[in-house]
Design goal:
Serine Threonine Protein Phosphatase 5, Tetratricopeptide repeat, 159 residues, mainly alpha, globular
C-alpha cells in the first residue's frame, strides 16, 4: 500500500480526535453556573476533627447532614466524631447513613468496623473487613487499617 491511501484516513482521524478539543461533536454541555462553594459547616467539622474537638465537629457535621442527607462523607465524619467522643450508638447510626448514601464508601466500612471492635463485636468487624476486601480489589488503606486493627484485637483477646 502506498502512503497516499493513508493520507485521507489520517485527515479523518485527525479531525475526529480534534473535534472535542475544538468544540465540535462534544456532548458535554457548557457549564451554566460556577461550582457551588464548599459548605462552611463541613469545613468547620473537618477542622474540629483535626483538633480532636469532637463536640464542635459533631455540631458542625450535624448541620451538614441536615442540609444534605445523602452526603456520605459528612455522615462518615460525623460517625467518626461521635465515636471518638464516646457515643458509639450514634456513631453506628451515622455510619449506616453513610453506607445508605454510598454503599461502597470505604471509610465508613473501616470506621464502622473499628466501632464494632470497640463494642467487642469481632464478627461484625470481620464482616466489614470482608466487604472492604471486595471493594478494594487490589488493596486500599481502609482495608489495611481495619485488617491491622482486627489482628491487634484478636491478639489482645488471646493474651
Amino acid at each position: 500500500m502506498s502512503i497516499r491511501l493513508f493520507a485521507p484516513l489520517a485527515v479523518i482521524l485527525g479531525l475526529a480526535l480534534a473535534a472535542p478539543v475544538m468544540g465540535m461533536g462534544s456532548s458535554d454541555p457548557a457549564p451554566t453556573k460556577a461550582a457551588a462553594p464548599a459548605d462552611p459547616d463541613y469545613a468547620a467539622g473537618r477542622a474540629a476533627i483535626e483538633k480532636k474537638d469532637w463536640p464542635t465537629a459533631v455540631t458542625a457535621l450535624q448541620k451538614v447532614v441536615a442540609k444534605d442527607a445523602k452526603n456520605a462523607d459528612a455522615w462518615n465524619y460525623l460517625g467518626y466524631a461521635q465515636r471518638n467522643g464516646g457515643d458509639l450508638a450514634a456513631a453506628l447510626v451515622s455510619y449506616e447513613k453513610a453506607l445508605g448514601a454510598d454503599p461502597k464508601h470505604r471509610g465508613a466500612h473501616e470506621y464502622m468496623g473499628e466501632a464494632y471492635l470497640l463494642q467487642k463485636n469481632l464478627p461484625k468487624a470481620e464482616e466489614l473487613l470482608a466487604k472492604l476486601d471486595k471493594l478494594c480489589a487490589f488493596g486500599c488503606a481502609e482495608y489495611t487499617e481495619l485488617k491491622n486493627k482486627v489482628a491487634a484485637y484478636k491478639k489482645a483477646q488471646s493474651s
